[in-house]
Design goal:
Chain lengths: 249, 45
């Protein structure tokens, strides 16, 4: 019988990711720079919002990233809770601060865009409020992990809180359809033709790809740090540290 | 190619803050990784 849980081990990830994170960060940064450059200087000016719409090239990738990360860590929470897969808990711990960071960027840039467009930094609109709730769930997971250290009960608690918070994801996504919100409806949906022009769409997609690769690279460093802290007694960590120590002499 | 010429303050503010947050988090993550590696090497030896 194949124990598939063994296939996704911290050991394999630690060995595999050693040289990979810098590649992700460098390629991600280049693509992100190109996407933002195209969004700022090549994409045409919007007839209604004029140049203020260019904030979208950071706001949308950050908001989509914040939601995608929460969806990902919710799956990891299920894996961690049911099958006790250690790597799933490592992913959850590493990605929660990154998701919180992206959701914060989405809320901050949204507020900056809202001031000239809506005349206010903040409204208690369904989309904005549900995004704020998402950020609070992220902060809850981070705080819970911090106060309970790296114990098994911390893993359980964080996984449970993550799963409870996943209820907010469809609310964030469909809030613009369910309620009459000030926030505009989605312009890009996986199963529908985008409602924005291609000249504005490609820099947006480039920015999304660049930010995703960059975040994956940073998350690899975070995951490696957590593995180093938690599994110091494992032979593969000891071997790696010995090798590292010898090469630094 | 034409640089944005209106709402410049809001554009600069949003991109500036976002880049700052991304940079700070990345540098902090890298420094923590380096520090942890060093600590664990010392612990092992």
């Amino acid at each position: 019988m194949i124990h598939w849980q063994n296939m996704i081990s911290c050991k394999k990830f630690f060995r595999w990711s050693e040289k990979k994170f810098s590649i992700f960060i460098i390629i991600g940064s280049i693509i992100l720079f190109l996407g933002w450059f195209a969004g700022l200087f090549i994409a045409p000016t919007d007839i209604q919002q004029q140049d203020a719409y260019r904030i979208m090239f950071i706001h949308v990738p950050a908001a989509a990233g914040g939601m995608a990360i929460y969806f990902g860590i919710s799956i990891c929470a299920i894996f961690s809770l049911i099958w006790r897969i250690k790597l799933a808990d490592v992913i959850l711990t590493a990605y929660a601060p990154l998701g919180a960071m992206l959701t914060s960027i989405a809320l901050i840039t949204g507020a900056i865009w809202g001031k000239p467009m809506w005349g206010t930094w903040w409204v208690w609109d369904a989309r904005l409020t549900s995004c704020l709730v998402l950020l609070l769930f992220y902060l809850g997971i981070i705080i819970l992990r911090y106060v309970m250290n790296d114990s098994e009960s911390a893993a359980k608690g964080c996984a449970l809180l993550t799963i409870i918070g996943a209820i907010d994801l469809p609310i964030v996504h469909y809030s613009v359809n369910w309620w009459n919100t000030l926030h505009q409806k989605a312009s890009i949906l996986a199963l529908q033709k985008p409602t924005i022009d291609f000249a504005m769409l490609w820099p947006l997609l480039l920015s999304m790809l660049g930010l995703a690769l960059f975040i994956i690279g940073v998350s690899f460093i975070k995951m490696r740090t957590i593995i180093l802290q938690r599994f110091i007694q494992q032979q593969y960590i000891k071997n790696w540290l010995r090798k590292k120590n010898e090469s630094s002499k | 190619m034409k640089a944005p010429n209106n709402y410049l303050f809001y554009i600069l503010l949003s991109y500036g803050l976002s880049v700052l947050i991304l940079l700070l988090i990345s540098i902090k993550t890298w420094l923590k990784y380096k520090k942890t590696t060093k600590e664990q090497i010392n612990y092992e030896s």
